[in-house]
Amino acid sequence: MPKRSPYVQSLKKAGYRLTQARLTVLDVLEADHGHITSADVLAKVERINPAIGRASVFRTLELFTQLGFIRPTYIDTSHTPSYVMMRGGHHHHVICTDCKRFFEFENCGLEAMTRNLQRELDMQISGHLLEFYGVCADCRGEDRAEQPS
Ligand SMILES: [Zn+2]
Ligand SMILES: [Zn+2]
Ligand SMILES: [Zn+2]
After folding, report:
1. pLDDT given for residue 76 in this prediction
2. Which residue(s) pair with 134 in the sheet?
């Protein structure tokens, strides 16, 4: 088990027991960098430890959402959410509207906006999920060799 996972530390600090269900769901989420549907989480958890029931997987996903570890996202008309990891309280990506691929990025530069929102709205802000939409180079069919670098 990845004992050094910051999420394991957060669970302990929040007073939650490190049950097999919680640790296994965390492993599955972290292995996939968090773009994963609940159906995929269920399937993977079952493969790792069939003793963990569906209900406890769903309860664990709810708990992790509550604790701000993950956020559910809904792409297009999907009925089941995809969960994304909220590393350090934030998550950012650009989605290609053609191939539906995700392009993750780290630096959002939103610290100043966060401070302003906290002040203006009197909110204790715990994180953000930032989603941009566009069309990737592959889908535009542009030859990379002709692109200025
Ligand atoms: Zn993402
Ligand atoms: Zn694309
Ligand atoms: Zn951010």
Report:
1. 67
2. 96
**What's the pTM?**
0.81
Average pLDDT over residues 47-51: 96
Look up residue 2 and give its two tokens. Answer: 């990845």
Q: What is the Å distance from ligand 3's center to 75 Cα?
A: 20
Structural domains of the chain in order of their starting residue, each with its CATH number: 1-85 (1.10.10.10), 87-149 (3.30.1490.190)
Q: Is the pLDDT of residue 147 over 70?
A: no
CB-based contacts of 41: which residues, under 8 Å, 6+ apart? 25, 28, 29, 57, 61, 83
Q: Is the pLDDT of residue 1 over 50?
A: no
Give 112 Cα–ligand 3 centroid separation in angstroms: 11
- Give me ligand 1 centre to Cα 128, in Å: 12
Ligand approaching nearest to the C-alpha of 98: 2
